[in-house]
Amino acid sequence: MPANKQIHLDNRPEGEATAANFKLVESQTPALADGQVLVRHHYLSLDPYMRGRMNDSKSYAASQPLGQTFQGGTVGEVVESRNPKYAVGDKVVGFGGWQQYSVVDATQPGALRKVDTTHVPLSHYLGAVGMPGVTAWYGLVKIIAPKEGETLVVSAASGAVGSAFGALAKARGCRVVGIAGGPDKCKYVTDELGFDACIDYRQHPDVKSMSAALKQACPDGIDGYFENVGGYILDAVLLRLNAFARIALCGMIAGYDGQPLPLTNPTLLLINRVKLEGFIVSEHMEVWPDALKELGTLVGSGKLRPRESIAEGIEAAPQAFLGLLKGKNFGKQLVKLA
Amino acid sequence: MPANKQIHLDNRPEGEATAANFKLVESQTPALADGQVLVRHHYLSLDPYMRGRMNDSKSYAASQPLGQTFQGGTVGEVVESRNPKYAVGDKVVGFGGWQQYSVVDATQPGALRKVDTTHVPLSHYLGAVGMPGVTAWYGLVKIIAPKEGETLVVSAASGAVGSAFGALAKARGCRVVGIAGGPDKCKYVTDELGFDACIDYRQHPDVKSMSAALKQACPDGIDGYFENVGGYILDAVLLRLNAFARIALCGMIAGYDGQPLPLTNPTLLLINRVKLEGFIVSEHMEVWPDALKELGTLVGSGKLRPRESIAEGIEAAPQAFLGLLKGKNFGKQLVKLA
Question: CB B278 to CB A280 under 8 A?
Fold first, then answer.
C-alpha cells in the first residue's frame, strides 16, 4: 500500500483558473478487492477540456466534483493485480486521474486497456495514439470528410490534436495549413510535421492581418477547418472559407477563462453554406479502433513525430495545466510521475 | 407586343436598402423566336434573399446586375407561344423577374414549369408549394431530421417558410414553437397554423427575456432550430439547445442591412455538440419533387393554410420589398401584376 499523492479540485475558478483552485493531498492506496489492479502512473495527460470541468456550469465535459482527485487520462504499469487478465508489468492506458497510483476495477469494460510499447512509446498513448489523436481523426474523417487536393486549416497546430490532424490530412492528399504561436512552433509544424505552411498568430494578432495571412497560405480558399481555439482566428477563417466548407468544432480554448468570445459575422456561415459541428470524441467510441490503428501506424512509421512537454512530478501538474491554457506547452502536455 | 413595366436595380444600397435603389422602366416585349413563350405575370414573389443580391459583395445569392430587371420568381399565364409544349392559357411558374411580362426560352430545362390550379391557387406556387415551402422542407428533413416528439423552433414563423415548416414538423409528430412579431401573427401561428406555441419577439426584445420565454415554451429544451432571422434570437435559442441539437441556417434577415450581427457565445455550439448547416435550396433541386408533392398535399387538404400579403401593381414592388425586410408583411409577400 504505497503512499499516493493526489491533486484535488479544491474550489472553482472565478474567471481565470489559478493554482489556488487545486490542492495537494497525500493518502494511502487501499488494499485490492477481487478484480482490481493497482496501477502506478508513469504519465498524466493534461488536456484543455479539463478547464471546462473546473466550472460548476453546464459544459460538454461533466463537472469535476470538489474535494476529489481531478480526473484525467493516465498511462502506467500494473504493480499489483487481483485480476487474472492483468499481470504485474503490463503497460496500461486508463483514466486514473491526477495522482501517482490508481486502484482500478479492471472488470469494468473500457476501464483499462493494455498497450504495446514495442513501436510506440508509452506516453504517446495519451497523445497521438490516444484521445487527442482520435479527436483529430474524428473531426477530419467524420466531419470535414475531405477530398484529395482540398485545403484544410487547423489551429493549435503544434499541439497533440493539431499535429495528428496534420499527419492524417497529409495522408489523404490535402493541403494542410497550421496556425501556431511563435517561430519555433511554426518551424516544427512545417519542418517536422510536414504541414504545407504555418501561420504564426503572434505575427497576426487581429482579424484583418490573420485573414490576409490565410489568403496567402490558402490561395484556393479553405475547404475544412479544425477549430481548437475560437476568437478572432475563427473570424478570420470564416472570411476565407469556400462554399460548402466544413468546420469541426473541437475546442475554443481562447474563451475558456472568463467571458465568451463572440463570432463576429455568423452570416458568413450562411453565405458559404457551411456545415459546422461540435463534438466530443468520447461520445464516438465506435471510431476508436480504426482511428488508433491508423495513428499507431503513422507514429510507428515515423510519419507522425509528436512532440511532448513534460512536467516532472504530480506537484507540477497545476502549473503545467495553467501553462497549457496559455499555450506555453510545445506539443502534448504531460506530467511524468514515475 | 404589349408594353412591359419593369423594375431595375439602379444603384446599390449603402447600409439600409431604399426605394431610390430601384428604377421603374417601360419597354416593349420583343417578338418571340422559335421555342419561346410570352408569359403574362400574375404574381411576383418577394423574398428576403433578394436583399443579398442588391449588394456587390460576395453573397449566397449571386449579385443582381445594375440597370437590368431585378430577378425573381413569378407565376403567370402563357399568352403567346412558339413552343409546342406550351399553349396559350397554360399556368406556369418561372423566374420572370420584377416585370409584367417575360419572354422565356421554354426549351431550357427548368425555365418554366406548368402547374395545376385545381386544388392549389396559382399564387401558392410562389409560397407554400414553391421555393419557400421547399426551403422549409429541406431544412427540416435534410438538416434537422427530427424524431417524433422532439421540440423544434422556427423564427419568422408566420412567413412563407416558417408556416410551411410548422405544418411539415407537425406532420412528423414534433412539438413546434414559432417566433413572430406581434399578437396578430402569433395568434395566426397557433390558431390557424397549428403550432404548439408562439413567442412574440416584440414582448421579448433582449436575449434574457427571449431565453426565458423559450424555456417556458420548450420545457424539454430545443432539439432543432430553423433560423430565418439571426441576431439576439439566435443567441437566446443557443441557451436552450439540447445536446446534439441541429440548426438549419436559412436566413439572417436581421443583419442584411448594415453591420453584421455577432453570435455572442459560439462555445455553446461546442458544449451542446450542435450541428449547424447553412444552405440555399436552389442547390438541392433533387429534393424538389418530393417536397412539392408533400407541400401540395398539405395545402390541398387544408392542413397548411398559407397567408399572403399582396401589393398591387409592379410600381408597388420596391416598397413592399422594403417592408418585407422589416417584417411588415404577414405571410408570403407577393405583388399582384394581373
Answer: no
